[in-house]
Input
Amino acid sequence: MLYIKCPHCGLRSQNEFSYGGDATVKRPELNKEISDQEWDNFVYLRKSPRGKHLELWQHISGCRQWIKVERDTLTHEIFTTLKSNEEL
Amino acid sequence: MQKYSVFSLIKNAFKGHKDWEVAWKDPNPKSEYDVIIIGGGGHGLATAYYLAKEHNITKVAIIEKGWIGGGNVGRNTTIIRSNYMHDENGLFSEFGMDLWRNMSQDLNFNVMFSPRGIINLAHSDAQMNVYSRRGNSMRLNGIDAVLLNREEVRKIIPMADFSENVRFPIFGGLMQPSAGTARHDAVAWGYARQADSMGVDIIQNCEVTGFDISNGKILGIRTSKGDIKAKKIGLCVAGSTNILAEKLNMTLPVETHLLQACVSEPIKPILNSVVTFGAGHFYCSQSDKGEMVMGGDLDGYNSYAQRGNLPTLQHVLTEGIAMFPFLSKLKMLRTWGGIMDMSMDGSPIIDKTHIEGLYLNCGWCYGGFKATPASGWTFAHTIAQDKPHELNEGYSLNRFSTGHLIDEKGLGTKTWIS
Output
């Protein structure tokens, strides 16, 4: 069981959260001409590192806020959690 | 190579089984090979075997960080099937079914292929319609498919929950009678033994630490046992694909996730087919030892842990008990996890790369075991001929940017969206 410290609600079990993937991926700017490659990078391509990974979770059975979690993908250690608008 | 047969068994029994040859040698790496396959799992071993057998390329090495067959080929639920709707997946998998049917003879190794059939249960009229469409698509591609109604399913699996008041009543199911199971370890060992006998070097406990690339061309690899030169290099590393991609400065449409499986204590024979629950993600078969072999969803977040987490296991087994209530009485014997190379459309990648001489075989999601022979066969062809075979043309690396996805179920990496 993972325990994730929601920055809004405090420490809760993994069962209250749903996963949202890599948080470092940036959507291309709206109304800007972009190449297929840029779109490809955003939609499909992922580093998926072994080790520290900054990722999105939603506290879906709690405050329903999206949050950022820095977690180790090998050991599952959670280093920091942030509000969605905060940077590491 | 010593042939395995009832006669060799009797002969060696008289000698107290002391004179059996080793099944494969343990060589030191040479300084140069024609082809290096990275990853000594099912796909890597099969690739080396078909390179030697079909293309006469025998100056081949398999580089394995751990021991052969220690990854996903030793961690799966042994299901073999070709019940796909899309042409690319159906034709590829059905080609593999032919290889499965002849594998024990071909490899002179009993892989215990058991075509016991797979049933995908349907729990609504809408799902019956979807299965009818999938079954028809399969039959158009020459794959056997039978649509079963509720009573026909009940005859095959009377122990499933057919009571009236269940949340997900069984309306029927789609069966592929020629699907089945095989002994997974034997597949790895059978391929390894044959590949070794044809001159392939199987190098275990050897980690790839880097690649030598010059002017966009691969020259060799750096390993914990020294540098090795090669004209061509093939990656068959499943859940470690992203780790090696990082060393190659490549970013792939693949994420690494964890999938768990488990077996119950052994019980008397009760289930003689593979059954999947249609209202969630749970599948079950009974091993020859009597254990119920079960699996289901990914843990749901990027992971390299090779061991699972209980909430997912509980979720999966809840579905199992909804389908087969008797499972609640069984004790769990073992659980384990493997790391999956989840591609973004749920279909694999077998292709060349932008680096000359470097070939990629990955993205198998949860379906890698059944694909072992077809994957090895087509990857060997792609490497030997320097172009994909028509069977794996659709499994291209650039299909994501061109929009030619093969989205069988939309069960790629982003399972949290579905």
About this structure: The first strand of chain B starts at residue 32 and ends at 38. Chain B touches chain A at residues 242-243, 246, 251-256, 300-305, 309-311, 344, 400-402, 413-414, 416 (CB under 8 Å). The two ends of chain B are 50 Å apart (CA to CA). DSSP finds ten helices and 18 strands in chain B.
